[in-house]
Amino acid sequence: MSGARTSALATLRGQIERIETAEVVHQHERVALGHGEIDNALKGGLARAAVHEVFCEGRQGVAATGFVMGLAGRVSARRPLLWVRQDFSELEAGALSMSGLAELGLDPRRVVMVRAADVESALRTSADALACDALGAVVLELWGDIRQFDLVASRKLTLAAQGSGVTALMLRMAAQPLPSTAETRWMLRAAHSPPGPMWSAWGAPRFDAELLRNRHGPCGRWIMEWNCDECQFSEPSTYSQPVAAAPAHRPDPAVPWQRRAG
Known about the structure:
The protein is α/β, with parallel strands linked by helices. 33% of the residues lie in helices and 24% in strands. The chain is built from 7 helices and 11 strands. It has helices spanning 2-28, 36-41, 61-75, 87-93, 98-103, 119-130, 151-164, and strands at residues 30-31, 46-47, 51-56, 81-86, 111-116, 137-143, 167-173, 184-190, 206-214, 220-227, 232-234. The strands form 2 sheets. Strands 5-4-6-7-3-8-9-10-11 form a 9-stranded mixed β-sheet, with helices on both faces. It has a two-stranded antiparallel sheet with strand order 1-2. The protein is globular and about 80 Å long.
């Protein structure tokens, strides 16, 4: 009995050591997004070799797609990117724009598009692609609440990502978050452009990003601005506007005129 206990104890110690070692390695495989507060919450940046989920509300698919493109650009490290889409997703949200990718500062020549006829094909293709360590990232775009993507399917994608080092980014349109093995889960909305003259209305893309799940840190909600030249996120830029000083000899009006910012 003593020998069996010693052997069991040694086995447990070995398992704990492997888990702790994997955790240390995992912490180093992170890519800074460029937004200081978010990178701090993520313990240095977005984890590679993991699954990350991006959801959107209502008709916010364009914002969520742009956000996922930005994440893919950060984690792919100039390697090819595979984007898997359901046919139904393209019917509802439209085709991806390669010129839009170029305007975001990303190279469309590194993007390989795969159109899947159904959810099963999309999941199978994504799992196979995640096993290829030549890729930088795999984006899986699914439409609606689907029963095929459960904890088993999520775990399969996570294991494939961990085995190859390729990052999986899931773009979920018209869906509600469910339990999964995702490292992070985001809810995306388009953020308001800053105030300014009409001729400067075309500025940097802004995202209202809410971090709903973070396995290794706190959650929160931030405004993220995408820098197309540096291909990274940042805190929103400040735009100084001239403001007239209030006369000192007059009391504040009962209903002051205010301009709603953001």
